[in-house]
Amino acid sequence: MKNVLLLASCALLLFSCKNQAQPQKSETNMSTPLVAKETIYQFKVEDLSGNSFDFASLKGKKIMIVNTASKCGLTPQYKDLEAVYKEYKDKGLVIVGFPANNFASQEPGTNEEIATFCQMNYGVTFPMMDKVSVKGDDMAAIYQFLTQKAKNGLQDSSVEWNFQKYLVNEKGELEKVISPKTLVTDPEVLNWIKA
């Protein structure tokens, strides 16, 4: 009887040791590919002169993207945008303007007319891109990135009006959305630039 008890105890001990938790292999659903978060660096656009502008050339810089208009009550923001650009461009900031005619037809001009207006009235030297749509079915791909959380990883947003600002960090990731009426000289914006 002792032998049977001893044998049963050994079998029980062996069985319990065999079923102890062992490191399990990580299960990955191979049917669902990992989606890399998009960055601003994937975009190539044209500037007002028709030249290619590759956002990949801005790696390591902070980028402020602004939809602009020449006939808007907020148009005087060009002055502060240019001043901030001049002050911080050598410290890693690039401001990129995208003229858009989505709000009350306040940017009706051609690219040439827009370039002349910006230069003559505000001395704009920051990069100005080809006129695009910033909302609706014909929204430019770069604005789809800026306004859709599924693409930018931060938040969904709508372009509210002319001169909305999208702040992109040095890694090409959307970091903040600033309303059109908030000036580029606002402490929130300047603190982001300086950080």
UniProtKB/TrEMBL annotation:
InterPro entries: Glutathione_peroxidase, GPX_AS, Thioredoxin-like_sf, Thioredoxin_domain. Keywords: Oxidoreductase, Peroxidase, Signal. It comes from the Bacteria. Residues 34-195 form the Thioredoxin domain. GO terms for molecular function: peroxidase activity. GO terms for biological process: cellular response to oxidative stress. The keyword Repeat does not apply. Residues 1-21 form the signal peptide. The active site is at C72. The keyword Signal applies. Belongs to the glutathione peroxidase family. This is Glutathione peroxidase. It comes from Flavobacterium xueshanense.
